[in-house]
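Lab notebook, bench 4. Still working through the backlog of constructs that have no structural model yet. Next entry is a single chain of 283 residues. Request: give me the structure tokens for it.
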Amino acid sequence: MWPLKIPLLEPARTYLACVGKSKDTKRRELLVGANTTVRKAGRALRRAAADGTLHNLDGNDFTVEGISTSDFVDWVYENGMQTVAGKRIRDALMAAPVDERCPLCRVGTVRQLDHVVPKSVFPALCVDPLNLVPACERCNLIKGDSMPQSAAETLLHPYLDRISHTRWLHARTVATPVGVRLEFFVAAPDSWDPTLISRVTRHFKLLDLGTRYAQHANRTITDVNQMVTRLRASGDATVVRSYLRGEAESRFAADANSIEGVTYVTLSADDRYCHGPSGAPTT
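Model written out:
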């Protein structure tokens, strides 16, 4: 998971920007009148996020009196985000990730806005910036409208969780008939508490990051094999290992959990890969 800066957009202003230009006068008055409810909902969301109690939020406290959930979401989010002001807000949120990379998985391309807590259950938060995370289509689809039942089941929040400075992503090599492949897994630092460990592990499993990272890593291995073959021919395993560690350090300098960094450092620790098929030490 890649962290994102918390949006500076103020929830109430974002809401009014989405509803303030409604051409239907009665609808506009009804929506503007709900601003107090939206403000209250935003404060409740931020308290729960700060306390780590998003799982305790009750959808009944986030409805808008006099407007059905489906109508409210349709008017405010679906239509509101298509207005000039709404598109400006959407574009600002979508532009936050580096290289358009999904912050939930780090491999997909941002295509949609994901609601951290589902808009179908928490309509008053449907355009709250803290509840809108740019994401790839696959992550958004997998998350769906589910809500965690405990703190330990709560997925990572790109705006709030800061775990990228500590190495937690690891891999192991697996020999196959077509060469070395990698399997990724979570190995939590000793400083993490059990709840954080559970959250990261659930996030990793639910979004199938092991499979997705392995696919990415295996393409990297294919790309680097030619260079490694030349290094084996011109030197020995020490030369190969030094090259791989150098590549890993370069990636880790920017991201302690770089998929490519983990790939290179894992390969560097594999004697058989560094020596090559013909020069592998016997066991």
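Notes after review: The mean pLDDT is 92. The beta strands are 112-115, 132-135, 169-176, 179-186. Flag for follow-up if needed.
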